[in-house]
């Protein structure tokens, strides 16, 4: 009898509890106080790492850090560099030695001053390989970088300590001035310094990097008053930093970054009014979101490129005419319309349209031209009887469009294809490194900073082989133009040289540019002035609370 | 009984050691290079990659890696994941979410399932029996992913009865996900109970009890149900063990940061320490709840003795 009595009691209390709880459930958005003090929430995915500028290389963590820190320069919505950050000026006579002068009066959230030392210390920490910071390579063009890398043997085992722990190219002149000596001239270097990797760090960081990663102390428009605990579900709420020294302080009182594992769930929450801004739409919503949200639907071009890269080391793809033919056989517009529903636009250049130096007509072989493609293929003596392997990483939503690319190769060039999309990123990357691609493969690049060089050097220069140059393309002429561009005296000269370098790429086609991503997001009626920049980041400081 | 339980608990130690080694070996055997994938489409600098490999002993042979892992384990250190976060923190953070979800699901499963099963079983082929038959068939045939999205859309967004996602409403956040998670098992429990009850209703002792003039409710609850519960308890016990391992689909759709999603991500990222730590814990839960089931047998059926 005991058994049944107990379970009856359980039923009763369980039901009563359920009713009570559901009665107080529902909309959980707290009151938005007076205008200027309200709070709003932004959808993010789980950041990969603790929130350290030197170790955050993905968009979710970047989004949060962008609210917590302000770098030397800032980028506006059109990816143009603005001196609205900590730097008063960044100047150089020879594009090699740069003098950075800081504005006075900037402080970190804990009150310590943002001075030259806080930049130099942060950069040295990130560049030093035993600290294993993912953004280390951003400092690879600063003199002395190699001395901060631990030596390794042929199998990749570490064999000792780095020679030095501080970059010889960084010199503090006084509190508000430091010098940066690059290992080679780079005229557009100031443009790079707005990226997350270049943010300053206060002395508190060096006392306890782990604690800092949970609750960063930055110099940005928002500050963290609670630790961010990954996986805790809630995310992190940041409050306005009232002593912010920048020109554009936060409009709202606080911002909550809410972590979701599924964008579909975030979208349903947006519809239900319990999250305010999302910067990505789930695939099902693409067709209907614009109509549903009207002027609360946001669309911006993202600074990235997706390409079909060729294994130039493979005899079959060694002839540039073959690669050009493949490029001309792909109807980018059709794929963009039918499969991406407008969230991709056809690429017409190796460089993203958000970058100064982009030319809309840079790549004449990026347009559909079936006749010319077949002519080139015949000329090159390509064996059409053998199928073509198309490689991409599994589980990332590339199946449909890669299949569409394959279908177009089949229809336009009369070549059968085999989809090689079974391997996840962790397995396909080592293959790409070891020249294991047996056919064209999906390649993608998200810009670090808005310069043409960033779309050329890291992907196609000889120096990047072993890095992100997975085509193993190497052309001294291209390398030389890139170097000249880096050393140019002015931006305009640099851009012209980069464009000449790009022309060589169009001729050699190590990779066929396919698409630029279009960011689509939406926001609730509670917020306004929602801007998504070319990095896919929402400018949280600019957001205003309606009413 | 005490000795029996102690012996069973002692047996879990070799099982856990064996399981952890097997899991460790399986993660080790996964093809691919987890460190190379850390940078996404971009390569990490070679010295940084080497540093990470060194830190996680990834260049060592399997037995050396496992030895180092166990060495840390006996000192209470479960290791860290690729983002330097201690595995024990992840478990501490996520386990309560999983436990709550499992508790709610089990309550729904046991209460609704058993009640529906009894109602159907005492009058076989009656109206209620047919209702239960049709509705459970329907539920079992809907994939949980569909069920979760539909429930979230209808009850969360359109009707607003439950929070759409997250854990901000305390136990209230778990009602809808718990019901969704329980749905499939609930149908099984109802079916099991129904069959078992229907069979026992025709047993001699029930007829005797009825003949003695006992009230109908007493006959059903005390005599029929208690005897019918053994297969049901077995099923529910095994189900608790499984639910404690997390529910990836439900956790993802309702944005509940539980252990299931953590282990799913860790397997994808090939984070050995996380996978081994969490899965070994799951194995322990499974053994533990099965032990409870075995003990419950004796409670339900006095004929079963363990000493």
Automatic annotation (TrEMBL), chain A:
Keywords: Signal. GO terms for molecular function: peptide transmembrane transporter activity. GO terms for biological process: peptide transport. Residues 1-18 form the signal peptide. Residues 85-465 form the Solute-binding protein family domain. The keyword Signal applies. The keyword NAD does not apply. One of its GO terms (cellular component) is ATP-binding cassette (ABC) transporter complex. It comes from the Bacteria. CDD domains: PBP2_NikA_DppA_OppA_like. This is Oligopeptide transport system substrate-binding protein.
Automatic annotation (TrEMBL), chain B:
One of its GO terms (cellular component) is plasma membrane. CDD domains: TM_PBP2. The chain crosses the membrane at residues 9-30, 99-119, 131-154, 174-192, 228-254, 274-300. It comes from the Bacteria. GO terms for biological process: transmembrane transport. InterPro entries: BPD_transp_1_N, MetI-like, MetI-like_sf. Gene3D superfamilies: MetI-like. Residues 95-297 form the ABC transmembrane type-1 domain. It is found in: Cell membrane. Keywords: Cell membrane, Membrane, Transmembrane, Transmembrane helix, Transport. The keyword Membrane applies. It is a multi-pass membrane protein. Belongs to the binding-protein-dependent transport system permease family. This is Oligopeptide transport system permease protein.
